[in-house]
Design brief:
Blueprint: H1 2-25, H2 35-46, E1 54-55, H3 66-75, H4 87-98, H5 109-118, H6 125-141, H7 144-154, E2 156-158, E3 161-162, H8 164-172, H9 181-190, H10 204-225, H11 227-233, H12 235-253
Helix pairs in contact: 1-6, 3-9, 3-10, 5-6, 5-7, 9-10
Length: 254
């Protein structure tokens, strides 16, 4: 029993040591490859298709300033304010699931980054548990700019296309830093399912989503440009709390 206890202790030590070391390493080192890239490549080969894996790392300063704003507007408007988890969004998703409504995504940009870099695509509770653990670690050790930089470099943005530079070259014939505001909004519109929705050949639904994101970008842009103040003061959360209070007061009056 003592020997088994020592083995278990070493396994726990190796797990925490290796995962923390990996997170610290990627704080500065570009992510060269992800599990998702490997899974997609294997699937292509099994389907008899040419294996495509377009991916080129570029620093955040070489990515259009419109793209972080676009993905925040589309995926996670509280990105600068939360610590990895949007509990209001999680609560709403759970309530909607209980009512039998459509499945609503509640993952933040931090959670999506953790999943894409360190884990595999799955909906099991085990994977979600690991996702929460890695989300906590990257929020602890990485600044928000680094989380955004990694996210924009590894996220799937098309079939066999990963990251801002790859999608810019493959879909728009330019570099990531030269993408326009409209192109960035279109890329952000595909992120719920980039293999189904295309920023290269957008449908009418994609154009509608693009317009919605462009509208939201007007409100989000100032927070990203002044992100240090936003992280400290949390103006979006305060504004939403005030709106919620006004809504509750109006209900009571009725």
């Amino acid at each position: 029993m003592k020997k088994l206890g020592k083995i278990m202790l070493w396994i726990v030590f190796l797990f925490f040591g290796s995962t923390i070391l990996a997170v610290l390493l990627y704080r500065w080192v570009p992510v060269p490859y992800t599990t998702l890239m490997g899974i997609r490549s294997i699937a292509m080969k099994q389907e008899g298709r040419p294996v495509v894996c377009e991916h080129k790392w570029v620093p955040l300063e070489d990515i259009s300033a419109h793209l972080p704003v676009a993905v925040m507007a589309s995926e996670d408007q509280l990105f600068l304010e939360h610590h990895g988890f949007d509990f209001d969004a999680i609560e709403k998703a759970m309530e909607e699931a209980e009512r039998g409504g459509r499945r609503r995504g509640a993952s933040t940009i931090s959670q999506q980054t953790a999943k894409n870099v360190f884990l595999w695509p799955s909906s099991t509770w085990i994977r979600k548990g690991f996702e929460a653990y890695f989300t906590f670690l990257i929020e602890l050790f990485w600044p928000k700019e680094r989380i955004m930089e990694v996210y924009l470099n590894v996220i799937e943005m098309g079939d066999g296309i990963y990251g801002a530079e790859a999608v810019a070259q493959q879909h728009f014939g330019c570099h990531a830093k030269d993408m326009t505001r409209e192109q960035c909004a279109l890329v952000a519109a595909t992120l719920p399912n980039p293999r189904r929705f295309s920023s290269k050949s957008p449908s009418s639904y994609m154009r509608k989503r693009q317009r919605q994101i462009l509208t939201q970008m007007q409100h989000v842009a100032k927070y990203w440009s002044d992100r240090d103040r936003c992280i400290k003061e949390k103006p979006i959360t305060k504004r939403r709390e005030q709106q919620k209070e006004r809504t509750e007061k109006n209900k009571k009056r009725r």
